[in-house]
Design brief:
single chain; alpha+beta; 2 domains; 6 strands; elongated
Length: 384
């Protein structure tokens, strides 16, 4: 092979080597870059298993009060912790399901971009012959400067044609190298981005799995609390059971009359979600069930979810997410259909139905009922 041909092939080899080096570097830095991304924030108490279970342990150690008022207060405390933990379990499962989907998608992206990078490399390899032909053609004439090309031609027209041909060969070679290098670089960058996304998805999934293991530990204790709640409530005398049911001041509502009034007022209030209100009120008397979303049993956020589903609208599953997911409204802005959250951490929700009233699924042993909207400490409200 001539020295000129060797120089052109050398430039080709250096171009490919530089691109492959970029691939190696970008792939090698994928993990550190992903590690630098902030990890998802853990729920309160999840970073310390001892602290995580302390509130439940304390409740389990507390003796059951013998007086009715003390017993009902103790039950309300247990029910709040139980409900809050159940909401946390539900949200973590939602996060895990979403993360599993993201891991699957990111794995597919990695495979797709790798195929594209492999295809770009294959095209580059196939094109070696083409580039070699260009280099050999240039060796036969491209190394001749324009003055020599004219002098060696048989006439002016031949000289111009020869010069144009040599320029075309040079442009063709440069275009081939540029296009192939650009395609390969794009494929390399896409594969590198996909690998980083895959690492982040795996990292998030591992973090959620660790949280789930802690929740599983807490759930075992939670089952003990649920058992205690059921044992105490089921063992109450009829009079004390009624006091438990009436603990939030339930209001008797004529549903048909109430909804008729609400629909008549709807044009004045902007046509709020009377459908969601009607759906929630249709479940008055339905029993409470931890983690239940209907149609026969409900927890607090499960009733909200089901009611909105009946009007073809999907809202978040848990109480905290329901508060955060809609348009925030204040107490004096409440309209029928708004979701109202209670207690620190928004561990309980109900639906405002108008006239200062709320429909909610409260606690074990208490059916879905209407209560005053101010019967519990409100922490926020959201409109969907």
């Amino acid at each position: 092979m001539s020295s000129t041909s060797s120089r052109h092939n050398g430039r080709f080899s250096r171009s490919v080597s530089a691109t492959l080096l970029a691939l190696a570097v970008s792939t090698s830095i994928a993990s550190p870059m992903a590690i630098a991304d902030p990890a998802p924030a853990a729920a309160p108490g999840q970073d310390n298993p001892a602290e995580f279970n302390r509130d439940i342990d304390e409740l389990l150690r507390k003796p059951i009060p013998q007086d009715v008022d003390g017993l009902l207060a103790h039950m309300r405390e247990i029910s709040r912790v139980t409900g809050a933990t159940n909401e946390q379990v539900q949200q973590n499962q939602i996060d895990i399901d979403k993360a599993q989907s993201e891991v699957g998608q990111s794995q597919q992206d990695v495979e797709d971009t790798k195929r594209k990078a492999d295809e770009a490399l294959r095209k580059l390899d196939v094109s070696k012959d083409s580039i070699t032909d260009v280099s050999q053609a240039m060796y036969r004439g491209a190394s001749v400067d324009p003055l020599t090309a004219v002098a060696g031609a048989t006439g002016p027209q031949a000289a111009m044609e020869r010069g144009s041909y040599l320029a075309s060969l040079s442009d063709s070679k440069n275009r081939v190298l540029s296009v192939l290098d650009e395609d390969l670089q794009q494929a390399v960058e896409a594969n590198s981005d996909a690998n980083r996304a895959k690492f982040r998805a795996d990292f998030h999934m591992n973090d959620l799995s660790a949280q789930q293991r802690k929740l599983d530990q807490r759930n075992a204790k939670l089952d003990q609390l649920k058992g205690r709640v059921m044992e105490v409530v089921n063992g109450l005398s009829p009079e004390d059971r009624q006091r438990w049911v009436d603990s939030n001041g339930p209001i008797d509502v004529n549903v048909d009359e109430f909804l008729g009034k609400l629909k008549a007022e709807a044009p004045e209030t902007g046509g709020n979600h009377t459908g969601a209100v009607a759906a929630a009120l249709s479940k008055l008397g339905a029993p409470y069930g931890w983690g239940a979303t209907g149609p026969d049993e409900f927890d607090c956020s499960g009733l909200m979810l089901w009611a909105y589903q009946q009007m073809g609208k999907t809202i978040p599953r848990t109480s905290q997410a329901q508060l955060a997911g809609g348009q925030s409204v204040t107490r004096d802005q409440l309209q029928p259909g708004d979701i109202v959250a209670y207690y620190p951490g928004a561990t309980h929700v109900g639906m405002y139905i108008g006239d200062g009233q709320l429909v909610h699924a409260s606690d074990y042993g208490i059916p879905v009922q209407v209560v005053p909207v101010d019967s519990m400490p409100m922490v926020g409200a959201s409109r969907y």
